[in-house]
Design a protein that fits this description.
Blueprint: H1 3-6, E1 15-16, E2 27-28, H2 42-45, E3 50-57, H3 60-63, E4 72-77, E5 102-107, E6 115-122, E7 132-138, E8 149-154, E9 159-163, E10 168-172, E11 175-184, E12 191-192, E13 207-214, E14 231-239, E15 242-244, E16 250-251
């Protein structure tokens, strides 16, 4: 199966917080990016974590409503993020040549458009438990109850959501113009996709896969994004206390059609520093 199909293959459960915005939490519907399928073997064999960009553009049939458009982007870009070496974001000569890589997630249109941008957390060993999740996001970008969010799928097949605005927030250590979001025991709220699911428990629930999803568009505001800019910049992605500080990969590619076409199967070009 081609890589772009693997990355958009399994049914999603939620478009987040459309009706209640950042003030509450509403997940409804069924969308093809929610249970994202990781690249073959990556969650079992790799020893290093990476966030591999992907985009999805679907049909009206995929989402049961509005067809998707080529309005989504997921890309690791130099100069977009915080210093990759962990230093303060300042003119300090020691950080001057640092790549400052950040993950741009963009949806340049309405939330109902059947499209999403995201990143697969590769290198995560299926069946592990996790102690925390999080990321830093640049103020002025979107931080809603539903996006950007972590989609967590357990070995039992249950899905949980960790939306940006549902996390515990503090100023990011490298730059006060960034905010740090954390989910851990006693920090933040993890929402089950199905209310019948048992509560997610850090350190106990066994996890099969983790995705980052951005599917709220320019018609959805958040406290840091009152106008609805439809994009977020993330960095220092925290998976169980290990930070993904940089990466590689741009989706869609220039020669593609919005579904990541032109990608190969080995993901070598999507591997970044951890």
């Amino acid at each position: 199966m081609p890589a772009n199909n693997r990355r958009t293959s399994v049914a999603l459960i939620a478009v987040a917080a459309v009706a209640l915005g950042y003030a509450g939490n509403a997940f409804a519907g069924s969308h093809p990016w929610d249970h994202h399928h990781e690249s073959d073997g990556d969650h079992h064999n790799s020893q290093s974590l990476r966030a591999t960009p992907w985009v999805f553009v679907g049909t009206a049939q995929d989402c049961g409503g509005t067809p998707g458009s080529n309005i989504v982007t997921s890309a690791w870009l130099g100069g977009m993020g915080l210093p990759d070496n962990g230093a303060p974001n300042s003119p300090d000569p020691s950080a001057r040549r640092d790549p400052h890589t950040g993950l741009l997630l963009n949806k340049n249109g309405p939330t109902t458009d059947c499209s999403a941008a995201g990143a697969s957390i590769n290198g995560f060993r299926s069946g592990q438990t996790i102690t925390e999740l999080g990321f830093d996001y640049r103020l002025g970008g979107h931080c809603g109850a539903g996006a950007p969010r972590f989609n967590i799928t357990t070995t039992a097949g249950n899905t949980y959501f960790a939306g940006c605005a549902r996390g515990a927030q503090t100023p990011a250590p490298q730059d006060s113009q960034w905010e740090r979001v954390r989910f851990a025991d006693g920090q933040g709220i993890i929402d089950p996709a199905n209310p019948a699911n048992p509560p997610f428990q850090f350190g106990t629930t066994r996890v099969r896969s983790i995705e980052i999803v951005f599917d709220e568009g320019t018609d959805t505001a958040s406290p840091s994004d009152p106008n609805g800019v439809g994009l977020a910049v993330l960095d220092n992605i925290d998976i169980g206390g290990k930070l993904i500080t940089s990466g590689q990969g741009i989706q869609p590619r220039a020669e593609g059609n919005g579904k990541g076409e032109g990608d190969d199967d080995d993901d070598d070009d999507d591997r970044g520093d951890r």
